[in-house]
Write a structure and sequence with these properties.
The protein has about 280 residues and is mainly α. The protein is built from 13 helices and no strands. α5 runs antiparallel to α9 and α8 runs antiparallel to α13.
């Protein structure tokens, strides 16, 4: 989430250093969301067919690299390319979270634990955005914040790899590959890494069914109306607006913007708790 929002505290700085207009900054920010949207369905299919561990490792590494390299961009096109790549590989992150929660917790508590994950991600973003603005305000640098947070992301990647390795090594109760195939075949569940001629056809039917369900369209339009405003305001223009209109310092404006994220996280937790009831 931080990479989505990280342009907001430094919009004027990016305009100056890259020599671009306000509309170009809008395009730079939007590049992430366009690719993020386009990659949702392909990754949703991949998560049913391939190992979640493999996808998680690849996604974590690519996002960390994009995040770190973004601090060294010298042109608008380079920045847009990195955000497009980050949007593509950021698409399955929430799907992975939901999948892991559904695998390890009761179905009645999936919403609650999903809400907790959202709260944590929003709070971390809140702190990171405020820190980014504070570092620029105090030291006059913005590129170094991406390098620093990229190193933190690298530590996170190592922790993910270590966790997966330990889990696979200590999991003595895993079924053999052949038993897993038979078990999932009997339950009509796609097996990660196993070829199935009818798999894509089945996914096509599921997508078609989802597209024909009018309630899904209602939820989609509601989400669009809500998240588009949230992304445009908190994700890009809220910080510069506060700085220009109310003469806020950069760190105070970022803190105020972060309060919106924090309150959204608290609301998510509340409704997740109610949904689990």
């Amino acid at each position: 989430i931080f990479f989505q929002q990280s342009v907001s505290p430094i919009t004027d700085v990016l305009q100056r250093d890259l020599g671009v207009s306000v509309s170009d900054i809008g395009a730079l920010s939007s590049a992430y969301y366009v690719s993020y949207l386009a990659a949702q369905i392909p990754f949703g299919i991949m998560l049913q067919k391939y190992s979640h561990h493999t996808i998680l490792c690849v996604v974590s590494i690519v996002l960390t690299v994009c995040f770190t390299v973004f601090g060294s961009i010298e042109s608008l096109m380079a920045g847009m390319l990195l955000r497009i790549i980050a949007g593509i590989f950021g698409a399955p992150t929430w799907l992975l979270v939901v999948s892991v929660i559904a695998r390890h917790f009761d179905n009645n508590t999936v919403q609650f634990y999903g809400a907790i994950t959202t709260v944590i991600s929003f709070m971390v973003t809140f702190v990171a955005l405020t820190m980014q603005a504070f570092i620029y305000e105090k030291y006059g640098v913005w590129r170094d914040t991406y390098f620093i947070l990229g190193l933190i992301g690298g530590v996170n990647v190592v922790a993910i790899l270590a966790t997966i390795f330990i889990h696979q090594r200590n999991s003595a109760s895993e079924l053999s590959h052949s038993n897993l195939i038979n078990h999932n075949h009997n339950n009509n569940v796609a097996v990660p890494g196993v070829a199935d001629d009818s798999f894509m056809q089945e996914q096509g039917h599921r997508i078609g069914y989802a597209m024909c369900n009018y309630f899904n369209w209602f939820l989609g339009m509601f989400g669009f109306a809500q998240y588009s405003i949230f992304s445009a305001i908190y994700g890009l223009w809220f910080v510069p607006f506060l700085m220009i209109r109310f003469d806020f310092t950069r760190s105070k404006a970022s803190f105020a913007s972060g309060i919106g994220l924090a309150s959204s996280g608290i609301g998510t937790l509340l409704f997740g708790f109610l949904a689990a009831k």
